Request: fold
Amino acid sequence: MTRKNFITLGTFDGLHIGHRYLFGRLETLSVRYLQKPLALYFPFPPKTLLSPHPEMTVLSTPAEKKQLFKTIGLRALPLDFAQCRNQAPAEFFEHTLLEQYQMGGLLVGQDFAFGKDRQGDTDFLRRACEQYNIPFEVAGFYQVGGQKVSSSLIRKTLAMGDIERVNELLARPYELTGTVVPGHKLGRKLGFPTANLDTGIYKILPLGVFAVKVRVGRRYYDGFCNIGFRPTVNTIHSCLPLVEVNIFDFHQSIYGRKITIWFAGKLRDETKFNGLDALVSQLKKDRQAARTLLKQASNLP
Reply:
C-alpha cells in the first residue's frame, strides 16, 4: 500500500530557524505515523502577489526557496496561489490536500490560515481532520531570546540593516543572487572595480556596506558590497537601490553571468563623501575591515 503524506503548509519565506523547527517536528510525526513528510508552499508570499508595490518584499525568491528545501533534504512542492486564493476551505481540504496530495496527517504553525478571507484557520483544520480521522497538530512559535521568530520580523530586521541578527534568525548567512550588468565603470577608475547586480524587484536589499563571500561559477572569493543610491557620485533616482560588489583579487569579465553573495556582516552605512579622494580613502578602510571580518566569520560557504 502506498504511504500517505504527512503535510505541512505555508509560505516559508526565508526558511528561517522557526521553519526548521517545524520541519523537524514534521519528520518526527511522519515517522510516528509511517507516512512521508511533505511541505506544500507558496513560491511568493500572498501579500507580495496582492500588493501594488511588491518591490523588495521577499527574503527568498522561488528559485532560492527551491534550493533551500533541497539543501535541507525535505520534499517540497509549490502551490498555485491564484488557484488556491478563492477556494473555499472545505474544497481546498478535500480536493487539494486529501485527493491531490494524498494527505494522511497535517502539521501547521500557530498563526496559519488559508483560503478565501483566511477562513481556513486552525480551528477549521482541527474539525476537518477529526472528521476524516487524520492526525493534526499545531506547532507553537519558535522563540529566540523571548521573541517569536517570523518572516515578518526578519524582513523588518533586514530593512534596518542588522545583518548579523538576520543571519542568526535564518541560521545561515543572508544571500543574494543576481546577473552582472554594465555600470558606469567609475569603480574601476578608482581602483575598486565592481560587479553591478540585477537581483530583480522582489528580493529585500539591506542598505549599507557589507563584508561578503562571493561565488562566481564554482569558485568562492572574499569581497565587500555597497547597496544604496550612490550619494557621492552618479546618484541614482530609483525605488530600488544599486548593488555593487568589489571581489578581492579577481580580474575576469563576468558581464551577463549570475553570481551569488552571502553577507558576513555590516561595515557601515552608505555615506556621502566630500569628493572622490575621501571616497577612495574610505573604500581602502572598508576593504581591510572586510578582510578582517571575513577571516573571523563562521557559517559561510
